[in-house]
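Predict the holo structure. Ligand: dtdp-4-keto-L-rhamnose.
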Amino acid sequence: MRFESTLITGVFLISPEERRDDRGFFARMFCTEEFAARGLETRVAQANISSNVRRGTLRGMHYQLGAAAEVKIVRCTKGAIWDVALDIRPDSPTFGRSFGTELTAENHRMLYIPRGCAHGFITLTEDTEVFYLVSSPYTAAEERSIRWNDPRFGIAWPATVEQISPKDAATPDFNEESNGIERLRGLI
Ligand SMILES: Cc1cn([C@H]2C[C@H](O)[C@@H](COP(=O)(O)OP(=O)(O)O[C@H]3O[C@@H](C)C(=O)[C@@H](O)[C@H]3O)O2)c(=O)[nH]c1=O
């Protein structure tokens, strides 16, 4: 696997190294040895699938606090998405900045999102599937959100939002206290 760093410390773009032959190719998509060698998280608590009917479906920006804070490794297995990590770690020099990239079924790329970054995506095609690994179990009480269009962060989305959950649409403006930012201190 090839690991490319991004403008946000701890966010990596991962590309498989394809070993091609007459049948097609073989590639690793996850490897505890390779991840551990780079100091990346190897624990997997959940593997999730997110199916989206419409182009322009937006989910996010989600993260968990405290011991529930989680690493995500995201791949689009059908169609295409624009996947975004937003740095909200108070000790990070890139606090408030986001990194977005296109993940498609064809490019096989993955985005590694560390603890203390909110995550979300918008679908760029109809009928998409997103498969992602998460290092800590879903803990609703520790889940927090940042609205996709919160002016505090100004995330640039490459498509118009056509579908969003009522919860994500109604997420209030960012607030350090209710967003639990102090509980992300020390992460970086
Ligand atoms: C995320 C999650 C949700 N659920 C339930 C809660 C609810 O009834 C239903 C749908 O939940 P949500 O609306 O929160 O699903 P969704 O908006 O797809 O949430 C996901 O969004 C992306 C961007 C992420 O980064 C994920 O970590 C996760 O937060 O599934 C679980 O049982 N386990 C889980 O791990």
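The chain has one domain: 44-184. The mean pLDDT is 98.
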